[in-house]
Every structure is written in C-alpha cells, then in structure tokens.
C-alpha cells in the first residue's frame, strides 16, 4: 500500500510548518520515518507544490515523482481533488495499480509506526472502505457555544445541565492516519457505512496548525526522548 503525504507550501497559521525545524530535523521527516518503518507501506509519495518541501522529502526517503499543480495547493482547493489527481498521475506515469492508500499528514509528527500499521490492519481485516484515526474528547460537545460579537453566548446544541460523567464519550478525528479505498475517494466520499475508527491516545494525536501546537509537540517529543 502506498502512503501519500500532503504538504502544500502555503500555510497561514504557521508559515513553513511542514519543514520547520522540530528538535533538529524538519517536521515532515517524522512522518516519512514512521512510514518507512511500516511493514505495510511500499512507497511514500510526497504531494506538494513546493520545490523545497519536495527536495527535503526526497532526501528523507520519499519517492521521486512530481509536484502538484498550483491550483491544487490553494486555500480553496479540496484535499480529495488532490488525492484523485495524485492517484491518476501515479497510475498513468508509474504504472501503479492503486486499490487503496494511506494519507499521513506531516502535521502529526507524534503519530507512530504502530498507529499506521494498526490502522491498515483494521482496514485489511474488515470490510471497511475507510479507516480514520480518532481520539477521545474530554468534554461533552453540548458544552460548546458560539460567541457573538458582543460577547454573549449562542447555543449550538440544546442546553442540558448535567455532570460530565453523565454524557456519552465522543471522539474527534486526529488527522494522523487515513486509510482509503480508491473507489470511495473517486466517488468523492471519505466515509460510508463501513468506515471504521482507529483510536489513538491524545498524546500522539497533536495536529500542528499554530505556534502553540508546535511548542506542545516539541515538548512532548523532547519529554519522550528524555524518558
């Protein structure tokens, strides 16, 4: 199974985040290294519009392929369009037959090879057409509110006063691992009734979008090295 690592050059929340130095190496290297150690991944494909990201990814073990078009790297571009484009190019230019693939976002550097392999195994050992990594939410969703411009509160859900322990546990997607059936993606869907979840611990589920996220990931990685 191939792994696609999407890493466009433009990032407004944390500029240059995909190759930002994280404890001595570019952040994208953590994802490439985890994928290289996987027993199920045969090729690591970097999907980027940025020549510098492409070069660094190749240096760390991604396969030499192609850059994505600029129109697939804008803020308005849909990730699913990029996946379809990448699969089409790989099948046409490299004669690959891609029935399924993994997406590994470089903004999840704490995700482990075990997380990758177990997600793929859930996919292979079930009838799922997609497997998506999730982690548990510590607070009930019904506690969330919209905040108006004047600072007042607006309900998102029906108000329900109760202790946290009384609410059913919910989970949210980590962004760390996606396993997709190619035909599901070609139908422009990520989920169907067969979709399964792979549950990750919160400490490996950090998705870096801001400087605060980056510093937290840096702290966790540094702590793990010291243990």
TrEMBL record:
InterPro entries: CMP-NeuNAc_synthase, Cytidylyl_trans, Nucleotide-diphossugar_trans. One of its GO terms (molecular function) is N-acylneuraminate cytidylyltransferase activity. Transmembrane segments: none annotated. Pfam families: CTP_transf_3. PANTHER family: HAD SUPERFAMILY MEMBERS CMAS AND KDSC, N-ACYLNEURAMINATE CYTIDYLYLTRANSFERASE-RELATED. This is N-acylneuraminate cytidylyltransferase. It comes from Pseudoalteromonas luteoviolacea NCIMB 1942.
């Amino acid at each position: 199974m191939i792994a696609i690592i999407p890493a466009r050059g433009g990032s407004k929340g944390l500029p240059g985040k995909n190759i930002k130095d994280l404890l001595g190496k570019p952040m994208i290297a953590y994802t490439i290294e985890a994928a290289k150690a996987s027993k199920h991944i045969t090729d690591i494909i970097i999907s980027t519009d940025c020549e510098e990201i492409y070069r660094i990814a190749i240096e760390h073990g991604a396969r030499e392929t192609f850059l994505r078009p600029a129109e697939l790297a804008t803020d308005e571009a849909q990730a699913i369009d990029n996946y379809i484009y990448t699969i089409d190019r790989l099948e046409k230019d490299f004669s690959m037959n891609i029935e399924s693939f993994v997406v590994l976002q470089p903004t999840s550097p704490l995700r482990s090879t075990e997380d990758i392999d177990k997600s793929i195994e859930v996919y292979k050992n079930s009838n799922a057409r997609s497997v998506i990594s999730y982690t548990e939410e510590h607070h009930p969703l019904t506690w969330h509110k919209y905040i108006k411009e004047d600072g007042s509160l607006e309900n998102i859900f029906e108000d329900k006063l109760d202790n946290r322990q009384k609410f059913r546990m919910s989970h949210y997607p980590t962004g760390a691992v996606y396993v997709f059936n190619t035909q599901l993606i070609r139908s422009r869907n990520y989920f169907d009734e067969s979709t399964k979840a792979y549950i990750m611990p919160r400490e490996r589920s950090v998705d870096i979008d801001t400087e605060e996220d980056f510093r937290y990931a840096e702290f966790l990685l540094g702590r793990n090295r010291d243990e």
